[in-house]
Amino acid sequence: QMQLLQSGAEVKKPGSSVKVSCRTSGGTFRTYGISWVRQAPGQGLEWMGGVIPMFGTKNYAQKFQGRITITADDSARTAYMELTSLRSHDTAVYYCATSSMTAVTTWTNWGQGTLVTVSS
Amino acid sequence: EILLTQSPGTLALSPGERATLSCRTSQTISSSYLAWFQQKPGQAPRLLIYGASRRAPGTPHRFSGSGSGTDFILTITRLESEDFAMYYCQQYGRSPWTFGQGTKVEIQ
Known about the structure:
By secondary structure, chain A is mostly beta strands. Chain A has strands at about 5, 10, 20-25, 35-40, 45-50, 55-60, 70-75, 80-85, 90-100, 110, 115-120. Chain A is globular and about 45 Å long. By secondary structure, chain B is mainly β. Helices cover about 0% and strands about 55% of the residues of chain B. In chain B, strands 2, 4, 5, 6, 8, 9 and 10 form a seven-stranded mixed β-sheet that branches. In chain B, strands 1-3-7 form a three-stranded antiparallel β-sheet, with no helix packed on it. The relative contact order of chain B is 0.34. The interface of A and B includes residues 35, 37, 61, 104 and 112 of A.
């Protein structure tokens, strides 16, 4: 059973950056990659971007282009999402997600979420 | 970007009743790439349905998905207490992957 374990909650100042990690166990995201999805308080789900290590491809939502970097350390089974130039509206729970099912390209497995609070 | 519109926003029902949730997409998508997620407070989303109608492992048979083109439905035949939650549809056929705004199924 694949599990995704994310790093702990963060409090950041406006203008700073945050880097959230996501470590997998019981499986690998090498084939289907890792995506990052965020959820602002009381709001819906928003896909931010993803990476597929097998193909070396990265895909970011246009909204976050220039502010987001997603990387994957295949040997460590860990993915990272860095978001820069933080603003208060970036306060959200950030999830990593992947697929553990052959040919299912949406997200079957999710991390527990990391709360990022942006406040002065 | 493909927009997904879910209706109703809130569905107030009693245990044992049938729930019908709608998801309409702004462009035709292949039914192979429409999913439904359930989310409970404080928890990560959980995949229920993928490919419009295929149950993910562990999804009870009272959950079923249908639809094609731009109109998709999630049906819960007989609501149980653990089904009262938020439900999101999602398309993953064309980047950026997008979600509907959600339907809350609450106890009447």
